[in-house]
Specification:
With 213 residues, the chain is mostly helical. The protein is built from nine helices and no strands.
């Protein structure tokens, strides 16, 4: 992360900053260790003090990169599935894919839009959408909408943090990153809780139907 922050600072007034943001966001769509949220937030926060990069352009490149990355994950899911490699069979990963499969069947639009805010969750959802044959003509417009909203949300966090400590771009970037991580964790916890309740309710209904027969 320090390397990426240094790269953003050194290229803040150069067009290369947009290339960095775009590349990181695309890769994060199918490779979670790459911290796209932190890079977008940091770029926006640095822009408040340095006057660049332009937040509107950051939203644009981040939104396009997010949609592209999500669609790459979809294609990977369609090509390799969700159980071919060892890491896909880890218990936590299996649970994530099971959760995604259930959500894709019952509430695909809401799940795809929400999952964009959850680093591991979005990859599980997008790969599962591809693996289960969810129609791509329905999938890609949702990823565009999710990408735009996520990019705007991330830039807004960065702008707020940057204005808070306008004369210290690194501190503004750090504050923005902490806020983004905290909100992402909160969204993840809430989504998981809602998913567990819906699963429990579904199992209870199924059990009641069996007993009633």
């Amino acid at each position: 992360m320090d390397f990426l922050t240094d790269a953003l600072l050194s290229t803040a007034t150069s067009p290369w900053v947009y290339a960095i943001v775009f590349a990181v966001v695309v890769i994060d769509g199918f490779f979670p260790p790459v911290p796209s949220e932190t890079v977008v937030v940091a770029a926006a926060a640095i822009g408040v003090s340095a006057g660049a990069p332009n937040p509107v352009l950051i939203i644009l490149v981040a939104a396009i990169g997010a949609a592209l990355g999500d669609n790459i994950a979809y294609l990977l899911g369609r090509i390799v599935g969700t159980d071919r490699f060892a890491w896909m069979r880890h218990p936590r990963t299996v649970r994530a894919f099971d959760w995604a499969a259930h959500g894709i069947r019952s509430r695909p639009a809401a799940l795809i839009l929400t999952a964009r805010y959850i680093p591991i969750g979005r990859i599980a959802v997008n790969m599962t959408a591809g693996a289960t044959g969810f129609p791509h003509r329905r999938f890609w417009p949702l990823t565009v909408l999710a990408g735009v909203s996520w990019a705007a949300y991330s830039v807004l966090i960065g702008l707020l943090a940057g204005h808070w400590v306008k004369d210290q771009p690194l501190l503004g970037a750090l504050i923005g990153i902490v806020i983004a991580i905290a909100l992402g964790f909160l969204i993840d916890r809430v989504s998981s809780a809602v998913a567990r309740r819906r699963t429990a309710a579904h199992q209870s209904t199924a059990t009641a139907d069996i007993l009633a027969r």
